[in-house]
Amino acid sequence: MERNMQTLTYDAAQVELLDRDLDVTRVDCKFSQVRSIERQSFRGRAARAIAGDRLGHASTTSDLSDDQLIRRAIKAARVAAPTGLSFPSVSIDSAHIDPALNEMSESDLCRLAQDIMQGMGHNRSNISIELELRRVRETVALHNTNGGQTHSSRVWLEGTAWVERHSGHDMLVMLDRFTTSRAGDSAPREFARRMARRLRWAHKPVEAQAGSQSVILSPSAFASLLQPMLMAFSGAHAFSAGVRGNPRRSGFAAKLGMQMFDPALSLYDDAILPERSICTPVDHEGTPGQCTALIKQGVVNSLYHNLVSAARAETRSTGNGWRWMIEPPRPAPTNIRIDRGKTRLSEMLKQLDHGLLIDLVGGSDSSVGLRGDFSRTIVLAYQVTHGKVTGFVRGVAMSGDLYRSLQNVEALGRDGYWSGNIFTPYIQLGGITVSA
Description:
Blueprint: E1 14-30, E2 33-51, E3 54-60, H1 66-75, E4 79-80, E5 91-96, H2 99-102, H3 106-120, E6 127-144, E7 149-167, E8 170-180, H4 187-201, E9 211-217, H5 219-231, E10 239-241, E11 247-249, E12 267-270, E13 291-296, E14 299-300, H6 307-312, E15 321-322, E16 330-331, E17 336-338, H7 345-352, E18 354-361, E19 373-385, E20 388-393, E21 397-401, H8 402-405, E22 411-419, E23 422-435
Parallel strand pairs: 5-7, 9-18, 17-23
Antiparallel strand pairs: 1-2, 1-6, 2-3, 3-4, 6-7, 7-8, 9-23, 10-11, 12-13, 12-17, 13-14, 15-16, 18-19, 19-20, 19-21, 21-23, 22-23
């Protein structure tokens, strides 16, 4: 919808209007059977206004007019707007839509869910699978008084599986997820194969060897550890209160240009990576997306920013201004990827000789990642003896300092996969403490 923004500014220096529509088709499977299909649509609108050097936000899911919504945003302008904050003036139209995925019927999605469960081994009497498959369509239209106009649309598929294996009084639990933006992508099949391999490798329980040791982390486990660490690269955490309330650089903002990690490690936030669920040339603020090297050969290279955090840091937004529904945009990562190494998983297992391949770990307080230390429950790991998986371990704990372990990566794999929006290869790290 085209708008003459100049007629809607009132007492605000700058105004932004956003319309966002989500269409979600969800297939729920329980006990290895399709149980329900549900389609939901969400429509929200939001306004931001810079008035009197203050920033205000208002949103609605009802039929407020542009006039009413802007007035609410101006009235809510109580947060100090950073000097230099300016809404983008670019015009961008983009569509990241795979027609085959967009046109999949509910029956097609059900068949895909059944194929995934079949690949996991759903017909085994001791296996119970809960699978949620979601096809999401999003359209966003944004206009502002600086002449910026963006229209973007995208479609993606995401799935989450909870698998239980019952054997007498013993129960093994596995949880993992995948995303893709292509109907013909191999991600669902590979996801099913990974879950099936976990069941094969977890053929008998063994006792873990406690103590500080080297371990191999699967992409799922490593991605789980990286998620809190990614907060430290957010521009929202670039400053903290210093002496007499003056802001000072904190976290990785104070380490820019410093060699903090092993030279083998390079980490990117890549918003324009093809075939990913977030593949768009523009974010929810109208800023062009890009590929940002957060770590380059072990050197802290950049943070990711939205408009507000970039203005506070006196830099430019990296196109990471994203909204949860119609809340104010915040700095958020898009597609996170780590460059592959040179070592095959089979070679890593042989080099480890005797130790653990940690596959799935429990969650933790995300704020811990700002310091680098972690303590997680091991949901599933495998005992490796003479390069072979000999059994599975679970229920024990792992802890360490991720930043310190990443200073000396013992091995970085060639094999890897996407876990949600994070791609990592298998990685071997030392200094990890395993305790019963």
